[in-house]
Amino acid sequence: MYQDNPEYHIPTPTLRCPKCEGVVRIVGGRECTIKSIKLAM
Fold first, then answer.
1. In the prediction, which pLDDT does 1 show?
2. CA dihedral sign of residues 11, 13, 30, 27
3. Beta carbons of 36 and 28 less than 8 angstroms apart
4. Cβ atoms within 10 Å, residue 15
5. Exposure of 13 by Cβ count < 10 A (0-12 exposed, 13-18 middle, 19+ buried)?
6. CA 15 – CA 25 distance, rounded (Å)
7. Is 18 helix (H, G, I), strand (E, B) or coil?
8. What tens digit of pLDDT does each residue of 6-26 get?
9. What is the DSSP code (8-state) at residue 8?
10. Using an 8 Å Cβ cutoff, are 17 and 24 in contact?
11. Nearest to 15, CA basis, from 5, 6, 1, 36
């Protein structure tokens, strides 16, 4: 049976700059374009 994990329901994801590793601050808007993604397993 599938269990829903509350960790997947964060209101705003934590994004980091690929150059400086700093946390990205969202200043406005409702859309986000993801150009690439790297997953670590």
1. 59
2. positive
3. no
4. 13
5. exposed
6. 8
7. coil
8. 766 766 667 788 788 888 877
9. G
10. yes
11. 36
CA angle 14, 31, 38 (to 5 degrees): 45
Instruction: Collect all residues with Cβ–Cβ distance below 8 Å to 24 and sequence separation of at least 6.
Output: 15, 16, 17
Q: Which amino acid is at 35?
A: K
The end-to-end CA distance of the chain, in Å, is 23
Whole-number pLDDT of residue 10: 65
Report pTM. 0.34
Are residues 26 and 16 in contact, defined by beta-carbon separation less than 8 angstroms? no
Q: Which residue has the tokens 């934590």?
A: 14
